[in-house]
Write a structure and sequence with these properties.
Elements lengths: L1 E4 L7 H11 L12 H9 L10 H9 L3 H13 L3 E5 L9 E7 L6 H9 L4 E6 L6 E7 L2 H15 L4 E3 L21
Helix pairs in contact: 3-4
Amino acid sequence: MAVVGAGTGFESAHARRRRLSRARPRRGAGSTRLTELDKRLLDEFQHDFPVCPRPYEAIARRLGCDEQSVIERLAWLTRHGYVSRVGPVFQPKRLGASTLAAMAVPRERLHEVAELVSSYEAVNHNYEREHPFNLWFVVTARDEQAVAEVLDDVRRRTGLDVMDLPLLEAFHIDLGFPLWTTSGNR
């Protein structure tokens, strides 16, 4: 399991910079500053999230605090845009089916279409790219038919084509990286 950082879900690069500039700690910002606990949560739990009945309690033990503090800090980090999702990351084709998809969306419809795409439970994340195919997203569902149904529904509701880019060959790319120098960095 992983703590996935900000950026999951649609937002343009400009909007992301604007949001993060508001969310990042500023001199004299007081309560909006990241605490050492926040930094450790973001750094040390991008990998090896505890799989147990009380994962936040296990994290708290490792960090030397209480379970409620972990839950509160993750909620705060989420509200302020530092964390967008806490959940599992599965290897492709190990559980269900998935595909990468791309769309060429007219600039004036990009936000509208991205919001629609984000509304699907099967969509893990989507993001803007500076390319003719400017909206990319990942669909994960119980089987290939369910993935195809989501893509077909997006086509139908937007009136735009959706390019289906199924995985042909898997490459492992570790998306976790140290954000600060803390005791738990890999």
